[in-house]
Amino acid sequence: MAKRIAHYINQFYGGIGGEEAADTPLEIKDGFIGPGMALQRELGEGYEIVMTIVCGDNYYAENSDCVTDTVCKAIGEKGIDLLVAGPAFNAGRYGLACGGICAAVARRLGIPAVTAMYRENPAVEMYRKDLFIVATAASAAGMRDAMRNVARLAKKMASGEAILSAKEEGYVPRGRRLNQLADRPAAVRAVEMLHKKLAGEPYTTETPVESYESVAPAKPIKNLAQATIALVTEAGIVPFGNPDRIRHANATNWASYSLKGIDGLESGQYEAVHGGFDASFANEDPDRVLPVDAMRFFETQGYIGKLHDTYYATVGNGTPVERSAEFGAQMAQELLESGVHGVLIPSS
Known about the structure:
This protein has helices spanning 36-43, 57-62, 64-78, 92-109, 122-127, 143-159, 166-169, 186-198, 280-284, 292-301, 321-337, and strands at 3-10, 27-30, 47-55, 82-85, 113-118, 132-136, 228-233, 237-239, 255-258, 270-272, 306-307, 310-313, 342-344. It is of the alpha/beta class and 348 residues long. The chain folds into two domains: 3-169, Glycogen Phosphorylase B (Rossmann fold); 224-344, no CATH class. Strand 5 (113-118), helix 5 (122-127) and strand 6 form a beta-alpha-beta unit. Helix 1 packs across helix 6 and helix 3 (64-78) packs across helix 4 (92-109). The radius of gyration is 24 Å and the shape is globular. The two termini are 48 Å apart.
């Protein structure tokens, strides 16, 4: 008898629409849809996608408890053997939904669940210790490889086969160490690694240690009423037409724009080029995302000394951490040279 598979996807991969359809309520349909066709092909005989769960990213974010309860009930009633979610690639809200649904199903029902996403998706750090998360490319260009790797791991999980290391199986490391039999003593392997290290040759440690960046908190501003405060945004608020061609995802540059004589950002003169959220509200009133009007109010009331004459912008959506750090260092250097005392970075 074929293993019964459930597949969770968002509104885009469900063929409903993009950001404009992100509020689409939960739908449960028979069979496979969209990328489920590739998943079914990779799973092959003995596995059948009998149910596809489609939900808008925004709808899940705002109704996660209700969605989770409904999905768990449906999966239990359908006699599902395994849940696959995604791949979400580098889509943050989609990743959070995939991780949340899989974690709930595995915890409540004891049913194997696997998802897939880019290593820098914010959901990875939230769920990698609880779930098997297959590592993917940043975009759907890597769909074929993602589905092949997901299917391979899913079949092992559904059949109860032993899951090997993250390197061997292609999932994101879960912070766990596995005991394995080796054909050579530890001392021999250690000396071999030492020789390679001394010779500048590549080697892989058997006991990786995670390292975390230490970020020292900024010193408090002594007198805010006399301080110059700058606005910096990764939400992609730029003059209309995007003159510096900042990309909607995986940004490769940042830009700065004058605020001299500007008391607020008017619709039609500024726009949001960020590809990770519905930009319609930001385009309708750019001050919602980059609050120049509020900062001018604080300036006139004496809460701050002055709003800096220039604001800085880029897009954080899918932009690698290393590149973002470079952008931040470059912006900070200019801000320090301009005598800025503090920076406000509004949420996107």
